[in-house]
Every structure is written in structure tokens, then in C-alpha cells.
Specification:
Layout: H1 12-15, H2 51-75, H3 87-109, H4 115-140, H5 144-165, H6 172-196, H7 209-238, H8 246-272
């Protein structure tokens, strides 16, 4: 069985026999490797993945994003000062964005999840979001950053409640649609980035009327991504996957929450500019 979230499709446990036992625990903060059953010598094993382990790992990952974002915000100069050099802040956003994108690809296609790489991704994502949020706050004000943060966690809580209350089941067509839509959105964003280097973009991801089309679509898509994350967590727990796989779910949830936050930020900025 393959993972659901497009960022989570290389889980070794999903391709292994669910009845297989004897997983070995990889070195903490390393890439590790799948356990080998039938080992005669004693080996250290971790416990099975649980809901608590998913919550703990996700809290660490998302918390790191928020801490680094806050540090980036407060440790960089006030951008409302006309004499301030914005170079360091722009550099932080660029390094954070490109680094997070690169690590998201590595984590997505890595068969054995690495906690260190998940946390590195979270730190770089926080670096990028801290700078981006500071720019949006300076330009649009109206506490849109705090509103976007609250809205993101409200979307998470609402989606989780709906998933549980309505007992939502993820089918193959729904999974395929979400994966294709995410890849399409990522492809468009890369195209926009390339075109912007030549001062010729479509404005699909800006704060404009056409940008709102992709912002609302992205917000809905982010909710769908959360549903795939919840389904992935349930399946891994039911299969008795080792505890380290909780980091895979934590990574997927972090990606989904960041996705929702950035689109909410654009939507709030659009309405604040009127």
C-alpha cells in the first residue's frame, strides 16, 4: 500500500508485509534502515506508532516552525524604516524557501524517514515564513498574521473533527485527485518563479483577483491534504508501524499546515487591501 499524502509516498512500511515483525530501531536522528526479521542476536526495538507519538512529533515539528519564524521576525530589522537594508531578510526568505523545498523533496522520496531531515525542513520553513509574515504585516497590517495563524489551526481542528465525526474514508480516486492537484499547483508555482526572473509572470500567486483563485483553491486543497494525513496516520497505526513513522506523518501535517497558512495569508491580505 502506498502513502496517501503526495509528500509521503516512500514509506518502507507501506511496501512491507504488514505481518512482518522484528523492526529494528535506527540510530536516533539518523536515516536508519528497516529491521530484519529473524535476527538471532538481541536488538533494540522501538514500540509501535501510536496516536500520542504522532501528536508529540507533530507538535515538535510545527513548534519548531513557529519558533524559528518568530526568531526571524524579531531578530531582523524593522522593514518600515526607509533606511533599513532589506538584504538580510530577503536572503533569509530565499534560503529558507529553497532549502525547505529541497528538503521536502528529499523527505517525500526517502524510503526511511529521517527525524533530523524533518526538523531541518521545519527550521528552514520557519525561516522563510518568518520573513514572509513580516513583509505581509508591514504592507497590509490589520493583524493578518495572527488571523492567519488562528485560521490555520481552526482549519486543522475543523478538518479533524469532520474526519472523525463523519467517518470520512479516503478512496483511490480522491487520493489520486489530491496528489495530481498538489503536483499541478507546485508546477505552476515553479513556472511563476522562473517567469518572474524575466519580469514576466501571470500573478497567479500574488495578492490580486487572479491570485485569489489559486489562493482559495490552495486553501481547499490544503484541507484535502490534511484528510490524507489523518488517513495515513490511521493506516500506519493499524498496521503496527514502528514509532519512527510518526515523523513521516508529522512531516506531512507540517507541510499541509504551512500550505494552508500561506494561502490564508494571501486571502486576508487581499481583503485587507480593499
Amino acid at each position: 500500500m502506498q502513502s496517501n499524502n503526495p509528500a509521503l509516498r516512500r514509506s518502507a512500511e507501506f511496501s512491507a508485509n504488514s505481518s512482518q515483525t522484528g523492526y529494528t530501531d535506527p540510530a536516533t536522528w539518523g536515516t536508519g534502515g528497516p529491521g530484519q526479521p529473524g535476527v538471532q542476536t538481541p536488538v533494540a526495538t522501538s514500540g509501535p506508532m501510536t496516536t500520542d507519538s504522532v501528536v508529540q512529533k507533530t507538535a515538535i515539528s510545527v513548534g519548531l516552525v513557529m519558533v524559528v519564524a518568530a526568531a526571524t521576525w524579531y531578530l531582523t530589522p524593522d522593514i518600515t524604516d526607509p533606511d533599513v537594508d532589506l538584504g538580510p531578510l530577503v536572503a533569509a526568505m530565499t534560503i529558507g524557501s529553497l532549502g525547505a523545498f529541497a528538503l521536502s523533496l528529499v523527505n517525500s522520496f526517502k524510503r526511511v524517514i529521517s527525524p533530523a531531515l524533518v526538523l531541518a525542513f521545519a527550521a528552514l520553513e520557519g525561516l522563510a515564513l518568518g520573513g514572509l509574515s513580516k513583509f505581509f504585516d508591514a504592507i497590509y497590517g490589520d493583524h493578518i498574521v495572527m488571523q492567519a495563524v488562528i485560521g490555520t489551526f481552526a482549519a486543522f481542528a475543523g478538518t479533524l473533527a469532520a474526519y472523525k465525526f463523519f467517518d470520512i474514508k479516503v478512496g483511490k480516486k480522491f487520493r489520486t485527485f489530491v496528489i495530481a492537484a498538489v503536483l499541478g499547483m507546485v508546477g505552476l508555482s515553479v513556472l511563476e518563479l522562473v517567469l518572474s526572473l524575466f519580469n514576466a509572470d501571470f500573478g497567479l500567486f500574488g495578492v490580486s483577483q487572479i491570485g485569489m483563485v489559486t489562493a482559495f483553491a490552495g486553501l481547499v486543497l490544503g484541507v484535502f491534504m490534511l484528510i490524507l494525513d489523518f488517513d495515513l496516520a490511521e493506516q500506519l497505526i493499524a498496521q503496527g508501524a514502528p514509532e519512527r513513522e510518526a515523523w513521516r506523518v508529522a512531516f506531512g501535517l507540517t507541510v499541509s499546515l504551512v500550505w494552508i497558512y500561506t494561502n490564508l495569508l494571501r486571502i486576508l491580505a487581499f481583503f485587507s487591501s480593499d
